[in-house]
Amino acid sequence: MEELAYIPSPSRGVLYLGPIPLRGYAFCIIIGVFVAVWLGNKRWIARGGRAGTVADIAVWAVPFGLVGGRLYHVITDYELYFSQGRDWVDAFKVWQGGLGIWGAIALGALGAWIGCRRRGIPMPAYADAVAPGIALAQACGRWGNWFNQELYGKETHVPWALHITSSTDGRVPGYYHPTFLYESLWCIGVALLVIWADRRFTMGHGRAFALYVAAYCVGRAWIEYMRVDDAHHILGLRLNDWTAGIVFLLAVAYIVVSAKKRPGREPVVEPGASGGEADAEVKGQASDEVKGEDGAEVEDEASDEDKTEDKTEVKDEAESAKKS
């Protein structure tokens, strides 16, 4: 049966600019990083931070995140690199695919914490600012799986089926659910949700980031169920399904507890910075103080004038009494 419509796979995932290889997988990750830093910077400035701070901290967070993502993948799929007939050197070939988002977020958060500590910035506020950007970075990064013809779903004949043409590493050419596309679209939706909720409920102290984590886990759970690549199973569920479920519960618990203990949003996110919400609040307070001082001065002047008039009246009455 010939398919009338489908998503074609690229004939190859790498192009060569002379001797320099341009790999689609790496290119998608780089685009994602730039998008995350760009959006995070705009949100950070709006919160009252300095321009460039997000990029400075990303210098720590991104390398840690890449290492963490690779470590998670290698540990959970160790048989791909350390079983008989495999070459352990392949564990270092990140461009061939294989970055676990759970490890990337965990170690990336550690790198961000180091960067925040060096600048005296509250880590939760930074996390809230970059949360939607991280979701968009994931949306971009998932297209790297399309270039590598990997991590697709079950066989299907829907009009948007992904046509897999490669037969390497056990792949069977055919038409499959494009789970990379599903997750990419879901991540875009998560980013929009976090931006809306942050504006609607004035989320702070890490709750916007926790919302991103919880929303992503929901989508990852059902997308993971559709995938057909090899994975470890526990009680009939893929390992990443268990991870998504546990992380979801932790994120929701954090939102509830944090909202009770620390309601509202941080008034200052970066010491010494000006602009954004914090600056507006400070200006409002300063304006009130100036008005109060001006009002007090006006009252004092009026009081002095009244006293002068009263003294004049008393003096005139006294002179009039003497004459009479």
Walk me through this protein's architecture.
- This protein is mainly alpha-helical and 324 residues long.
- The protein is built from ten helices and seven strands.
- It has helices at 24-46, 53-76, 79-82, 101-119, 123-141, 143-148, 179-201, 207-226, 239-261, 276-323; strands spanning 7-8, 14-17, 20-23, 162-164, 174-176, 233-234, 237-238.
- A three-stranded mixed sheet has the order 1-4-5, with no helix packed on it.
- A hairpin with a 2-residue loop joins strand 2 and strand 3.
The total of beta strands comes to 7
* SS summary, helix count: 10
How big is the Rg?
A: 30 Å
Average pLDDT figure: 84
Global morphology: globular
Head-to-tail CA distance between termini: 127 Å
What spatial order of strands do you see in the largest sheet? 1-4-5
Helix proportion of residues, in percent? 55-70%
Order of helices and strands: EEEHHHHHHEEHHEEHH
Q: What structural class do you assign from the helix and strand content?
A: mainly alpha
Biggest sheet, open or closed, and with what strands and sense? 3 strands, mixed
Low-confidence stretches: 278-287, 295-299
What percent strand?
Answer: 5-15%
